[in-house]
Design brief:
CATH class of the largest domain: Alpha Beta
Strand order of the largest sheet: 3-2-1-4-5-7-6
Bound molecules: 2'-deoxy-thymidine-beta-L-rhamnose
Oligomer: single chain
Radius of gyration: 22 Å
Order of helices and strands: EHEHEEHEHEEHHEHEHEHEHEHHHH
Shape: globular
Structural class: alpha/beta
Number of domains: 2
Length: 375
């Protein structure tokens, strides 16, 4: 019997919070753990999880964890691990419940799962403890767990069997199942688009006009916006419905180039081993600019110089961080076809990441190492 996990997720905006939490919950359940996933808004699961809720996962309403009458979660299922995603702040009633458990000699291990970044502070902050000196959780300890791209971070979510599933994947059959006509023989480039509404769409269309292209556009505002623009004659546009998370992954595997955003699709694009362009979640204080640069520095370390400068220009342009530059008046995409340097680099980056332990294995190792301190 696995551990009992309580995962807390607040949907701030978009789908990243629930997307990451849902992946983590599924990965836990697949490894035999028991998960209660507490959500303040579960509506996105209707499309993200079309097969329903797998055994081992229970969806709970956040509101229920706020009730003082929550009571013990049951002697059969006290929390072993509590995960607060992205500093979402646990309800006070639940903190009381954790303290009660601790008083009975079963203190849950408490993890704050942080946002993903390649910035240097991540290695410094990963694994830091925050002992609680006041409030309902006094006496408990919270540990900061940082995902990341290097061995001194918590790594990335990567469920067992992911790379094998990709190897067995048949893109043409998958595309046909989505109702996309097969024009592989014409040498058509296949591109996916998942972006924020401020992306420079006309410039993207211009950049894609140089060869026959199938553009698979994800559901949402951008899909409506791009359909109002005039399309190059060489471009076939296909509007996708909201896909289940597994099919979203397959979309990335099927394409020659993926435009992704936020956090979870950004990670999945890296696991796809295909060239990609990341649109970072923009912050009012501009904190996204150094975050984008830090990732590019790491990601491009082993890329050939020409490719590295092409990618930097494309990514900065796509993120509105260099449109004033003389050299970046338009989006100039690198070649991403079979045999290209961009594809070789994407594969080599994936290999580098896959040589590091995945996030959940690292989290479990951390919990095991520290379990004696909290029991
Ligand atoms: O939706 P996002 O922009 O989420 C963002 C980021 O997480 C950001 O860091 C955070 O601060 C902000 O939300 C609040 O992009 P992201 O992270 O890629 O999440 C999208 C999720 O939706 C991901 O799990 C993939 C999933 N998805 C599908 O499953 N099917 C689909 O059709 C689409 C379009 C997305």
């Amino acid at each position: 019997m696995g551990k009992q996990w309580d995962l807390f997720c607040r949907v701030i905006d978009n789908f990243g919070d629930i997307g990451v939490s849902w992946r983590l919950a599924r990965d836990l359940a697949a490894r035999g753990e028991q998960v209660r996933l507490w959500l303040d808004d579960a509506s996105a699961l209707a499309w993200m999880a079309p097969q329903g809720i797998p055994p081992g996962i229970e969806i709970k309403a956040w509101e229920q964890a706020c009730r003082a009458s929550l009571g013990p979660l049951g002697p059969q299922s006290p929390s072993d691990v509590v995960v607060e995603t992205f500093g979402c702040e646990l309800p006070e009633a639940f903190l009381h419940h954790m303290a009660e458990q601790a008083a009975q000699g079963h203190a849950p291990q408490w993890i704050n799962l942080e946002y993903l970044s390649a910035e240097p502070y991540v290695e410094r902050s990963h694994g830091l403890n925050s002992p609680q000196f006041s409030g309902p959780a006094r006496g408990l300890n919270k540990t900061f767990f940082y995902p990341g791209f290097t061995p001194r971070t918590g790594g990335l979510l990567r469920e067992p069997g992911l790379l094998q599933a990709q190897t067995a994947f048949e893109p043409q059959a998958w595309l046909a199942a989505q109702g996309v006509a097969n024009q592989a023989a014409s040498g058509e480039r296949i591109v996916s688009l998942f972006a924020y509404p401020n992306a420079p769409l006309p410039q993207l269309l211009a950049a894609l006009a140089d060869r026959p292209t199938l553009l698979l556009v994800c559901a949402g505002q951008v899909q409506a916006d791009i359909q109002r623009l005039s399309l190059p004659a060489t471009l076939r546009l296909h509007a996708l419905p909201y896909l289940g998370q597994d099919d979203f992954d397959r979309l990335l595997w099927a394409c020659d180039l993926n435009f992704v955003r936020g956090e979870d699709s950004f990670v999945r694009a890296q696991w796809a081993g295909k060239p990609f362009v990341w649109q970072i979640y923009s912050q009012d204080d501009g904190a996204h600019a150094p975050k984008l640069e830090a990732f590019m520095d790491l990601w491009l370390t082993q890329a050939p110089a020409g490719l590295a400068s092409q990618w930097r220009a494309v990514w900065r342009y796509w993120n509105a961080l260099a449109r004033e530059d003389a050299g970046a008046k338009r989006l100039a995409l690198p070649d991403t076809a079979a045999g290209s340097a961009a594809l070789a680099h994407a594969r080599q980056w994936r290999e580098n990441l896959a040589s590091q332990p995945d996030l959940l294995s690292q989290l479990n190792a951390h919990l095991l190492k520290h379990s004696h301190k909290s029991s």
